[in-house]
């Protein structure tokens, strides 16, 4: 769902990096019919690739990103000090091995990192789309990812991989285009959100939309951005993507100022407060508010089995690929229970599935963070994926 | 922490009610020296009493309220359809039996329900205090509660009882005035907040203080109220006081509109969203933003053992009363683990303590909600309290 906590833990030395990567952009002038019935008459997507496509094009991997993610999953952009959001798991010798696989990572439509989205120009009006940009569903992303896939000459993914909202896209791939992927890797995800999860997303949206600078989403027209709202939205997200224990370990009850003077709390703050404010400030500088709303709505409305009579077993019966499901013990927004529901439905649908429940701190963000067992099982499963590439 | 969810479940028929109650007000013109070093030169407190003080004044009970609570704990105000926030547990034949006990419930200083607080007039300026109102700590509330106690002619409470922030006051009573209470009843509380709890409070405060109508807390001077911020603060609170399962049971993923039309989500909403918006709107009409900030700060800074070398055992060694500690399995803001820490420290300090961990949905709000086992153990313990009243 976010790459926010990659810097939360001391990163192990990573001698093997993809190195410098350069995003590519692709224009599509074939209309894309969306789940909402609306049509994007033309659009651009920005993406990165790592590794080389093999001769029979059997080693292609699609990475699907989460709420605040983007195409820059691994390696470094020129001049950057921090690598892409999943660099620990993508690269030479890493679980998603760029020496074995051709890895494609695309910024989702509706995003704010280069693919067509609310900040892009609507060709019909010549002005930025802003909140007129169509709502997106996971299947829309799947379809646009598939258009890029065709353009790259790929007929079948070795694997589609995603965490959180990315895992929802991976599952949607397995149901929509069952012949076009061999493996589906679903990490810290769910077949649908819980009421609590929807509620947290709603608070985030309300924080943004009640910011006087939001202007019903047409803030670009007013030359402002709803920074206060976006900052609050991120603060809520940040707390909920971490675990209680993780926060306790990281911050405890430490005060920002050196000493605690009872009652003189005008200037002193707990470390956790200043950290949250800082994270919120940073995010509100770089992320688009309409994109945040769009992504959370896609999360809320995702319901894998809705059109299959609310029966996840019936839904998964359409899949033809193998599944690998991963969850993390301290993740309370996409709890292990949600992953077990996926696994149970897959087993009942008689589909091949491997499942790993990883002991981990740091809650939902655990899927982005170094963790030995997670690395090992991920490696092992990707070995199986590689063996299917001729 | 809140009385928000009293209406969450079908309330059982309650034939025995205290009936109509009338709040009382008391002016104090003796200065109150606060933990911050500041002084309230004079102040008013509003309170209610239920039942009769017995001849030797041994049957008095103090109820301490939580974040958004107030003095109106039980019975009905003239014309009200809903009773006080803890009516299920206070009244004739109820655990805190008004036929046996003389029950005192006071609005805390800094509140917004009648006791002196940010909306009151500062006698030195002739204007509302607003954010100039002094910060409050639990010990300040204990001291002002004690002044009322003396005025009522009570030398020793049979019990001091509180949930959440109220439980913190009850524990503070046990350490500050060990000879002046026989029982301390601590429900869904903690010796200090976790980093996650502080973080949620910080988001609430930031929501309020970043509302353009906040004006550094001097919104009364500007004839506005920071409604948007207070609404968001309440929404965050509301989610976190409920449990994930409780929300799931109450709302599931039901849509507000009758039918779901994929992609036409402009007008449809999940039930949980409209419920949260409604709750937030209601709260923002009636609660004072400066009080909300003041109460959350008191929560954050409470640390029972700080002045005892961070040793809860050393802290509790000063107590002379018996303790009854209650926690609820689905409460994740004041988890059972926090209550077990209290119990463990009390046992290590060789203090008499009874502990009940109650299986309950509805998270932190469970302490306000009908629950058979909770009622039974509460009844049983209060029987013991009553036996100590001559």
TrEMBL record, chains A, B:
UniProt domain AB hydrolase-1: residue ranges: 59-243
Binding-site positions, substrate: 234, 365
GO terms for biological process, alphabetical: homoserine metabolic process; methionine biosynthetic process
Main location: cytoplasm
GO molecular function: homoserine O-acetyltransferase activity; homoserine O-succinyltransferase activity
Keywords tagged on the record: Acyltransferase, Amino-acid biosynthesis, Cytoplasm, Methionine biosynthesis, Transferase
UniProt keyword annotation of Protein transport present: no
UniProt keyword Cytoplasm, yes or no: yes
Record-annotated site: Important for acyl-CoA specificity: 333
Reaction equation(s) it catalyzes: L-homoserine + succinyl-CoA = O-succinyl-L-homoserine + CoA
Pathway in which the depicted protein is active: Amino-acid biosynthesis; L-methionine biosynthesis via de novo pathway; O-succinyl-L-homoserine from L-homoserine: step 1/1
UniProt-listed Enzyme Commission number(s): 2.3.1.46
Active-site residues from the entry: 164 (nucleophile), 331, 364
Subcellular localization: Cytoplasm
Family the entry assigns: Belongs to the AB hydrolase superfamily. MetX family.
Protein name, per record: Homoserine O-succinyltransferase
Species name: Oceanicoccus sagamiensis
